[in-house]
Amino acid sequence: MTDVKKLQTLDGMLDYPDPNDASKGTTEQQFQEYLKNHYAVMYSLVAMSLWQPGTNYIKGQVILSPNLPANTIARVTTEGTSGDAEPVWGAVGSTISDGTAAYIMLPRTIDFATQAEVTAGTNTTKIVTPAMLGQTIQVDLASTERVNLNEADKSVTPGITGILPVSHGGTGTDSLANVTVGKAGTLDGDAGLWDYLHRLGKNPTLPTTNAALNALGVFMSYFDQKNKIANQPGQYGQLLNLPADKGGESAQLWIEQPNENIYHRGGNASITINDAPFKRFLDTDDLSAAGVVAGNVSNANAWWVKLGGVIPLIIQGGYKYVDKRTDVYIPFPIAYSTVLSIVGTPVVNAENGSGRGLENIKTYNTTSFVYYSGYDINYKNLLWLSVGI
């Protein structure tokens, strides 16, 4: 590949000699370099697009010539070598033979089509921009209207027509009243859906393998007999079968009646859902039992909260100003039965110049603790936190 040269200017090329100044005057070497540069640039321009005899042209290359009809170009359609004489160029759309190469004549246009021209769809020479074609399409399933996508309005709402066949995922009919599934006589309306989901009836005898349960699809059945299914949470409740696939991935929900507790269980290729126990979902009652059940946080110096749940933890905290090298007595806002942990830390806004001191919990019991303030800084702010039951 030949590098394209930067066109050299005339600077220094018209500098006449001066007998009094040896630096003046254009040398022969400088002029030769100037001519070589201009030749290289001219060669690049010609090689890029200007027709030349005996030249190999590749398919898709654009050819120009001052002899072409106005506002036209020639594009190579057959790769080959041009002839010795320039061909006679034709009108737009014509095919030109040249040696072993061939061209098609195309318009050389810089005109852009208007929206009206795009909508009409008859102009064959002007450029169509994406702005003229961009559409926002929304299908109206309740309409059979036909629209033109080339209209000036970029928001179009075409309708549909016909009936989607069963082979393509449709119902093959124009009414749900004509669709039957299982024991549901129809899917038309709420009654049809209820009949479909409850098609197995009350207290059904169900298969025990994952695949057989999944083959039944989604269903709901009410039970008022004990132990009709394995690991049944209670006598009264609804079983909701939710197969993940037609193989071994299974899931079931049990909604207990009348307290509405919800249980779940699942299975897969290695776990038989019928052997899995049901586990109950937590509800707001469970969360309330594990949350804060008592406390007093009105005083930041000494506050406490008590949590519910299996282990009713008590958390207490506060702060107090302390001096240096002294014991500090801190009473708990409420007494513990057992102290689990106490943390105290001094907060200061000065440096400990002496470098001496030790801060620690000296003693504690269920009603208070003693903190030793050892740093040589007065007016420290002791922050403390304790946990117990």
In terms of topology, how is this protein built?
Blueprint: H1 28-49, E1 56-57, E2 62-63, E3 72-78, E4 80-81, E5 95-98, E6 101-107, H2 115-120, H3 130-133, E7 136-137, E8 155-156, H4 189-197, H5 210-215, E9 219-223, E10 237-241, E11 250-256, E12 262-267, E13 279-280, H6 284-289, E14 292-296, E15 302-307, E16 314-322, E17 326-331, E18 339-347, E19 359-364, E20 368-373, E21 380-388
Parallel strand pairs: 7-8
Antiparallel strand pairs: 1-4, 2-3, 3-6, 5-6, 9-10, 10-11, 11-12, 12-13, 14-15, 15-16, 16-21, 17-20, 18-21, 19-20
Describe this structure in words.
The structure is a single chain. This protein is an alpha+beta fold and 389 residues long. The protein is built from 6 helices and 21 strands. The protein has helices spanning 28-49, 115-120, 130-133, 189-197, 210-215, 284-289; strands at residues 56-57, 62-63, 72-78, 80-81, 95-98, 101-107, 136-137, 155-156, 219-223, 237-241, 250-256, 262-267, 279-280, 292-296, 302-307, 314-322, 326-331, 339-347, 359-364, 368-373, 380-388. Strand 14 and strand 15 form a beta hairpin. The protein is flat. It starts with 27 loop residues before the first helix and ends with a strand.
Unreliable stretches (pLDDT < 50, length at least 5) are: none
Q: Distance between the terminal alpha carbons, to the nearest Å?
A: 86 Å
User: Fraction of residues in helices?
Assistant: 10-25%
Strands of the widest sheet, in order across it, are 9-10-11-12-13
- In terms of structural class, how would the helical and strand content be classed? alpha+beta
How many separate helices?
6
Give average pLDDT, whole number: 85
Give me the Rg, rounded. 46 Å
Largest sheet: 5 strands, antiparallel
Task: Return the string of H and E elements.
Answer: HEEEEEEHHEEHHEEEEEHEEEEEEEE
The general outline is flat
